[in-house]
Design a protein that fits this description.
Shape: elongated
Strand order of the largest sheet: 2-3-1-4-5-7
Number of helices: 26
Distance between the termini: 64 Å
Length: 569
C-alpha cells in the first residue's frame, strides 16, 4: 500500500510525515522549502504501508517542478491523505476539490486545528465531512493530537471520482462550503500578531532584523565560547591528553609514526592546536574548536526558522530584491544558504524564471557562507572583536549587492511578483527542535569531521616529505603577494573544495592576524563552492551557466581579497 501526503505548501505535511513514519526530517515554519519528496513506512490495519511526502502545491495545475513531481506521484498512490491547513481552509480546499476528481481514495487531515481555534475560527467538521463526502480528521501534527485517530481512519478513505470541474465551478463550490461550515468570531490582536505586523513594516522590521542579527551573533560567539571553555577543552586536557602522552612516549623511537599520530612537540609538550597529528590537532580542531559553535549556530538558525520569522523578512525586502533581478521569495533559498548551500540551491527551483535562478544560485555561491563556516567565522574572527566580523559580513553584502545589480542588467529574462503565504508566529515543541538540531549536527560530524581528520595528517605528511612546500612556494605570489596571507594558507584553499568549514578550521593553527582572518574568510566564501554545492549547481544550471558562474566567483574572489589586503584594517 502506498499512501501519499498531499497538500498546500506550509500545511504541515512534513511534520505529519515525521509523526506517521518516525522518520527524522526537518520542517520549517515557512513554505516552499521541500521540492523533492521523502518516503517512510508505517503500519495500517496490520499492513505495511509506504508513506510519501509529496511536494506542496496549491493546485494540480501548478507550473514548475513541484507541481510536475506532485502530478506524477498521484499516478502511483493507493490512498491520499490530503493535509489541509485549518487556518486557511478556503484556499486549501481548491486542491482538495481537484484531488476528489482523481480516482484515488482520499481522507482529509484538518491540520493546525489548535491555531484555528486560537484565532477564532470555528469549523463544523461533521458538516465539512458530509459536504466533501470523505472522512475529515482534525489533527495537530506538532503535538500529535488526532494522529492516532487519523491512522485508524485511513481504511475509511473514500474514492469520490467527481466529474472534472472548471476553475470557476470549484471556487463557487468552495464558497458554498465555507459559508456552511466555517464561522469566524471577533477578537482582539494578540501580542504575537502585533509583533508579526511590526516585523513586515520597513522601520520596525529593520530594527527587529538588526536586533535579531545581534542576538544571534552574541548567542553563537558567547555560547560557543562557554561550551569550549567549560566542556570541550577540559575534556581534551583532562581525559585525552594523558592518553596521547603515553602514545607519544611509546612512538618516540619511530619518528615517522610519531609525526603522523602525535605531530610536533613544543618544549617536549603536546600542543593540541599546533602539533598537527592525527590524535592531536585532527581531533581537537573539529570537536573542541568547531563543534561548540556549530551547535549554538544551528540552534539559533532553527529557532528563527520554526518561529516563522523568515517569510516576514522576505515580504519586507521584496521591493529591494527586484533591483537584483529576483522577487522577495529568493530570500528564502538565500537564507537557507546560511544553513547549507546545497538545499539552498535546490530551493531556487521555486523561482519561476531562469534568470532568477541563475542570479540566486550565483549570489548564494559567492556571498552566502554556510552555517558551519559562519560558526567558525564567528568563533575565530569574533575572538578579535565584533567589528572584524562586521567587516566580513559588510564585504559579502556589498559583493552580493554589486554583483546582483550587474547580473540583473546583464542576464536576460523576467522577474515575476512575489506570492508567499505567511503563517502565524509559533514555537515548535522542544523535542522537534532538538531533533532538527541533532540532524544538522550529525550531518556535520558525519560529513565534515572525517575530512578534517584526514586533511590534517595528510597536510602534515606533505610538509614532512616536502611536496606541500613546493605547492605553497608555487602559489605564494598569489596567496602571500596578492592576498597577504602566509603561504601555508593555501592548504585551506585546497580543502575548501571539499568542505568550507574544514578549510576555515585549518586556519586556526596558523595564528593569523585579524586582517588576515578577514581576507581569508572572504576569499574562502567567494572563491569556489564546495564539491557538494558544485555538483548541485552543475545539475541545476548545466555546464555553460556553471562555467560562467565559476568565472565570476574566481575573478570576484581574488579581486575582493586583494582590495581587502590593501585596506588599513
Amino acid at each position: 500500500m502506498k499512501i501519499l501526503l498531499a497538500g498546500n505548501p506550509g500545511a504541515g505535511k512534513s511534520v505529519l510525515f515525521s509523526r506517521l513514519t518516525g522518520s527524522l526530517v526537518t520542517s520549517d515554519n515557512f513554505p516552499g522549502t521541500a521540492i523533492g519528496f521523502s518516503s517512510g513506512h508505517m503500519r495500517v490495519a496490520d499492513q505495511n504501508a509506504e508513506v510519501i511526502d509529496t511536494p506542496g502545491v496549491y493546485s494540480l495545475e501548478s507550473s514548475g517542478q513541484a507541481g510536475e513531481v506532485a502530478r506524477k506521484m498521484l499516478r502511483d498512490g493507493d490512498i491520499i491523505i490530503n493535509v489541509v491547513n485549518a487556518t486557511n481552509l478556503e484556499r486549501d480546499l481548491y486542491l482538495t476539490l481537484e484531488l476528489l476528481e482523481e480516482r484515488i481514495p482520499i481522507i482529509v487531515a484538518l491540520n493546525v486545528w489548535d491555531d484555528a481555534r486560537h484565532i477564532g475560527i470555528e469549523i463544523n467538521v461533521a458538516e465539512l465531512e458530509q459536504m466533501l463526502g470523505v472522512p475529515v480528521i482534525p489533527t495537530v501534527a506538532t503535538t500529535g493530537e488526532g494522529i492516532k485517530y487519523l491512522v485508524e481512519s485511513i481504511p475509511r478513505a473514500v474514492m469520490r471520482a467527481n466529474p472534472a470541474a472548471t476553475r470557476e465551478e470549484r471556487w463557487a463550490r468552495i464558497g458554498e462550503i465555507i459559508g456552511q461550515v466555517q464561522k469566524v468570531t471577533h477578537r482582539h490582536h494578540t501580542f504575537g500578531e502585533t509583533l508579526a505586523d511590526a516585523t513586515v513594516r520597513p522601520l520596525p522590521g529593520t530594527i527587529i532584523a538588526l536586533l535579531v542579527a545581534m542576538a544571534v551573533f552574541a548567542f553563537v560567539v558567547y555560547g560557543g565560547e562557554a561550551m569550549f571553555k567549560f566542556i570541550a577543552d577540559p575534556i581534551f586536557n583532562v581525559f585525552w591528553l594523558p592518553v596521547v602522552s603515553v602514545i607519544s612516549s611509546l612512538t618516540a623511537g619511530v619518528p615517522l609514526l610519531h609525526d603522523i599520530l602525535i605531530g610536533r612537540l613544543f618544549d617536549g609538550q603536546i600542543d593540541f592546536i599546533e602539533s598537527w597529528g592525527l590524535l592531536t590537532t585532527a581531533l581537537y580542531v573539529p570537536f573542541a574548536l568547531v563543534l561548540p559553535y556549530i551547535i549554538t549556530f544551528y540552534f539559533a538558525m532553527g529557532l528563527l526558522e520554526d518561529t516563522g520569522y523568515l517569510p516576514r523578512l522576505a515580504v519586507m525586502i521584496d521591493t529591494l530584491m527586484h533591483r537584483f533581478g529576483m522577487h522577495g521569495y529568493a530570500i528564502i533559498p538565500t537564507i537557507l544558504g546560511f544553513g547549507c548551500n546545497v538545499p539552498a540551491m535546490l530551493a531556487t527551483r521555486v523561482l519561476e524564471s531562469r534568470k532568477e535562478r541563475f542570479i540566486a544560485m550565483t549570489l548564494i555561491a559567492i556571498a552566502v557562507p554556510c552555517a558551519s563556516l559562519q560558526a567558525l567565522i564567528l568563533g575565530l574572527v569574533g575572538q578579535h572583536g565584533f567589528q572584524y566580523v562586521a567587516i566580513i559580513y559588510a564585504t559579502l553584502l556589498a559583493v552580493w549587492i554589486i554583483i546582483g545589480i550587474i547580473l540583473n542588467r546583464a542576464v536576460k529574462g523576467f522577474t515575476p511578483e512575489l506570492l508567499i503565504e505567511i503563517h502565524p508566529y509559533r514555537l515548535m515543541p522542544w523535542k522537534m527542535m532538538m531533533e532538527k538540531l541533532w540532524i544538522r549536527v550529525r550531518g556535520f560530524i558525519v560529513e565534515a569531521v572525517p575530512i578534517m581528520i584526514i586533511a590534517v595528517p595528510v597536510i602534515n605528511v606533505l610538509y614532512l616529505i616536502g611536496v606541500f612546500q613546493a605547492i605553497t612556494d608555487f602559489t605564494a605570489p598569489v596567496v602571500s603577494g596578492l592576498l597577504g596571507l602566509p603561504k601555508e594558507a593555501v592548504a585551506a584553499i585546497f580543502v575548501a573544495f571539499f568542505r568550507m568549514d574544514a578549510a576555515m578550521a585549518l586556519l586556526a593553527p596558523l595564528e593569523l592576524s585579524a586582517k588576515q582572518l578577514i581576507v581569508s574568510s572572504v576569499v574562502l566564501v567567494m572563491f569556489f563552492p564546495c564539491i557538494a554545492t558544485f555538483t548541485i549547481m552543475l545539475r541545476e544550471m548545466g555546464w555553460k551557466s556553471l562555467l560562467i558562474a565559476l568565472g565570476i566567483m574566481l575573478l570576484s574572489g581574488l579581486t575582493v581579497g586583494a582590495l581587502l589586503n590593501l585596506l588599513p584594517i
